[in-house]
Amino acid sequence: MLSDKSAQVLLTKYSPTTMSERAREPIVAVNRSSATMNAIKAYILNHALKPGDPLPTESALCEDLQVSRSSVREALRKLEALDIVRVHQGRGSFVGSMSLEPMVETLVLRFALDTESGAESLRQVVSMRRFIDLGVADSLVSAMKGTKNPDLEELVEAMVTKASRSEKFTEEDMAFHTGLVSYLDNELVTQINASMWLIHQTFIPELNESSAESLLRTARAHESMLLTAQDGDVEAYREAVIEHYEPLAGLLDMDS
User: Fold this and answer.
1) pLDDT digits (tens, 9 = 90+) for 77-131
2) Any residues with CB less than 8 A from the CB of 21 and at least 6 apart, and which?
3) Dihedral of the CA atoms 47, 49, 52, 57 (nearest 10)?
4) Which tens digits make up the pLDDT trace of 221-231?
5) Could you give the CA distance from residue 203 to residue 184 in angstroms, rounded to a whole number?
6) Beta bridge partners of 85
7) Interatomic CA distance for residues 23 and 152, integer angstroms
8) Cα separation of 137 and 131, whole Å?
């Protein structure tokens, strides 16, 4: 955990005010790539740019930041890898979508390389998903109380049907959870939820958890989550969330 002093250093380093001041300073040779990246991020903040908005040309950035074209190009390439910038040949550079895709790829690689811990990586991902679902329970149920959701009902019906045939329901599962969190009107929660789900699905094929009983139990838990949320019953919704993860949690020897 970060100390109070360390946290304050990070907050100061990446605050809009600090980055704005740095954007007006000549960039020194030491750690020039990182400094150029920070200056471009400061430009995005200062001008309140949104995904898809154009950035200055390479020539303009070189002049404003007093760095070489190679430094600007290197910074843009690194920012593109982080989905902060999108570079289109012949059109210029634009603000990226700033999705969590880079984080997903990093975590997938990290867990894939973690051969010593085996199922521990999946336990961590499943725990994170469960924490998120339980953490948003109050807000989600409050938002969904009294609503009707025929699209989600169709997804639940499809999951139950497939589970009855011992078939997985991956696409329906993803669409269901995306539909639930859409009620929160919180883009960050939506992205984190989707990211954890994708990482989860990357590792789940390694586990032999697809018995007809566990699949049907999980599908029915999705149904309970939807019904209890629409009824406005937070406690019952939480119980349904726990039930949703119980087959996998048991297989992974996780605490309830």
Assistant:
1) 999 988 899 999 889 999 998 887 777 777 777 766 665 555 677 788 888 889 9
2) none
3) 20
4) 999 999 999 99
5) 27
6) 95
7) 47
8) 10
Domain ranges within the chain, ordered by starting residue: 4-95, 101-251
Of 16-25, 92-101, 149-158, 234-243, minimum mean pLDDT range: 16-25
What's the pLDDT score for residue 31? 66
* Neighbouring C-alpha atoms within 13 Å toward the C-beta of 107: 20
From the list 183, 178, 173, the residue with the least C-alpha distance to 223 is 173
Asked if the 4-95 domain carries CATH number 1.10.10.10, the reply is yes
Contact present, 198 and 149 (Cβ < 8 Å): no
Cβ proximity of 143 and 184 under 8 Å: yes
Angle between helices 32-46 and 58-65 (to 10 degrees): 110
What is the full DSSP assignment across the chain?
---HHHHHHHHHHTSHHHHHHHHTSPPPSTTHHHHHHHHHHHHHHHTT--TTPBPPPHHHHHHHHT--HHHHHHHHHHHHHTTSEEEETTTEEEE----SHHHHHHHHHHHHH-TTTTTHHHHHHHHHHHHHHHHTHHHHHHHHTT---HHHHHHHHHHHHHHHTT---HHHHHHHHHHHHGGG--HHHHHHHHHHHHHHHHHGGGS----HHHHHHHHHHHHHHHHHHHHT-HHHHHHHHHHHHHHHHHHTT---
The pLDDT of residue 233 is 98
Nearest to residue 134, comparing CAs of 244, 251, 227, 209? 244
The structure tokens listed for 244 are: 């949703």
For domain 101-251, give the CATH number.
1.20.120.530
Task: Report the candidate in 219, 122, 105, 207 with the shortest Cα–Cα distance to residue 168.
Answer: 219
